[in-house]
Amino acid sequence: MTRFTGRLTWKACCAASALSLAVAAGATSGAGAASRDRKEDQASRDAAEVAKAIAGSAKALSDFPRTRNRGAVLSFYAKTYTVVENGEESSLEGEKELLSELLDQMEEGQEVGISSMVRNIQVRVAGKIAWATYDYEFKIALRGGDWGADEGKCTSILVKPGSAWLLEHEHCSSLCPSEECEEEEDSEAPAHERT
User: Fold this and answer.
1) All structural domains of the chain with their residue ranges
2) What is the DSSP letter of 191?
3) What average pLDDT does range 63-76 have in this prediction?
4) What is the CATH number that goes with domain 47-193?
5) Angle in degrees, CA 145, 147, 151, rounded to 5
6) pLDDT tens, 139-190?
7) How far is CA 155 from CA 26, 113, 116, 170, in A?
């Protein structure tokens, strides 16, 4: 009887070990799924924050004539920010110069209106780096006429050095670069109006 009980004990031990391994594998699999879910949730939150940063940058620029707050506009840019726009490169210094020029004009009594809008923002996140594509529409007007209008597509690279996503680099292209648009307008004008 003892031998028989021993065999049952051995079989019971094997079955218990197999069951323990299966439960542990299931727990590990569950932990892996939970970890994966947390990573996906974080990526979704990061993507939403990136889209919010891009939209916030456009809004701060639109609000600039009213607020005159350079810091609010510049807070969305990394110190090493660069942009290539229709083949021309600029930097954060270029953005600062533009804002300074606009401030000077407003202080001289010039009325300035800015409309900066973004739409169709698509975001991908990989840790502390993100890239996004979006459509933009930008208009700036001075009293007495338009100073400029543009629309097109941008690809942006953002970084998260701290708690906020910042624009590091952008590459933007107009749907109709200004020289081409002027040529089209001239060719569409009646012959007696062309110069």
Assistant:
1) 47-193
2) G
3) 96
4) 3.10.450.50
5) 120
6) 988 876 667 889 999 999 999 999 999 999 999 999 875 555 555 544 444 4
7) 42, 25, 16, 6
